[in-house]
Amino acid sequence: MGFRSTLIAFWTAGKGTTVGLTGAAESRDPLELFEEWFDAAKRSGLILPEAMTLATATASGEPSARMVLLKGYGLDGFVFYTNYESRKSKELEANPRAALLFHWPVLQRQIRIEGPVERTTTEESRVYFETRGRGSKIGAWASDQSALLSSRQEMEQRFQDLKDKFSGSDILLPEFWGGYRLIPESIEFWQGRLNRLHDRLLFERHGDSWTRSRLQP
Question: What is the domain range of residue 146?
Answer without folding.
Answer: 3-214
